[in-house]
C-alpha cells in the first residue's frame, strides 16, 4: 500500500499533481473503461483476478488461498501454460485467434510500452518467452511476489498478492482513499479506437483501482501517462521494426476492446469442471 505523504514530500506531491492538472493529465475514467495490461477488466461484466479475490474474501474470509477462485485460476494447468501475450489472449475456448500472429512477450505490445517513455520501443519483457530468448533466468525477479504471470505461478506469489490486495482493501475501507496526498494517482495509458471507443490500460495502481471498483466506485481519477491511437498503427514500434504488419498489430489492439477477462475465466473454469 502507498502510505500517505507528509511534510515537504506532501508539498512536492501536491505540486506535481497541480502541474498534471494544468496539463490535463489527471482525468476521471469510468470503471467500465478500465482494464489491465492483459485485458482483464475491472468493469461490470468483466472478470479481474483482484476484484474476484476481494468479492470472495468478503463472503469466505477463511477460505485457503489455493481453494479460492483466484487461486484456482492461477494454479490451473491452462494458465500455467501461458508463455506470452498471444497465449494469454487466446486463453479461451475455440480456435486460437492469435496463434498465427507474431509472438509478443508478456509485457510487450505492438505499439511499444505502456508509458510515454516507452512508446515507439518495446516495453519491458518478462516470462518464459524472455528467458528462452535470452538464456536468462528471471523467475526470481518477476516470479516471486512480483507478477502472477511468470510460469510456474508459485504459491508464495499467490499468497503475497492475496495479502496485499486484502490489506489494501481493509485500509481504504477504514481510512478512505485520497490520491492527492499519496505517492500519486493510478497511472494509465489511453487506447483510442478508430470507432471512438476508449480503454484505459492500468500501468500502475492495479490494486487500488480493483479495490475502488470492488467498493462500488463508478469512476477513478487517474494520471494519463500516454495515449495511443489505432489510426497511428503504421508508426507503432513492432510495425516499423518489421515484426508485424499494420493489420496484425491492430488485431492485438482490437483485443483490448473485445476481451474483458470473463471469456478467459469461463474457459479456464470449464477446464476445472471437466477435470477427472
Written account of the structure:
The protein has 276 residues and is α/β, with parallel strands linked by helices. It has one domain (32-274). The chain contains twelve helices and five strands. It has a five-stranded mixed beta sheet with strand order 1-5-3-4-2. The radius of gyration is 19 Å and the shape is globular. Mean pLDDT is 85; it is low at 1-5.
Number of helices: 12
Rg for CA atoms: 19 Å
Q: What is the count of β-strands? A: 5
Any low-confidence stretches, pLDDT <50, length ≥5?
1-5
**Order of helix and strand elements from N to C terminus:** HEEHHHHHHHEEHEHHH
Largest sheet: 5 strands, mixed
The strand order across the widest sheet is: 1-5-3-4-2
Provide the domain count.
1
Distance between the termini: 40 Å
Task: Characterize the overall form.
Answer: globular
Overall pLDDT score: 85
Which range does the strand content fall in?
5-15%
Structural class assignment: alpha/beta
Helix content: 40-55%
Could you write a compact summary of the structure shown?
This protein is an alpha/beta fold and 276 residues long. It has helices at 7-22, 49-59, 69-75, 77-80, 85-89, 128-134, 139-143, 155-175, 206-214, 237-240, 246-258, 262-274, and strands at 26-30, 34-35, 187-192, 198-204, 219-229. Helices cover 42% and strands 11% of the residues.
Helices and strands, with pairings:
Layout: H1 7-22, E1 26-30, E2 34-35, H2 49-59, H3 69-75, H4 77-80, H5 85-89, H6 128-134, H7 139-143, H8 155-175, E3 187-192, E4 198-204, H9 206-214, E5 219-229, H10 237-240, H11 246-258, H12 262-274
Parallel strand pairs: 2-4, 3-5
Antiparallel strand pairs: 1-5, 3-4
Helix pairs in contact: 2-3, 2-8, 2-9, 8-9
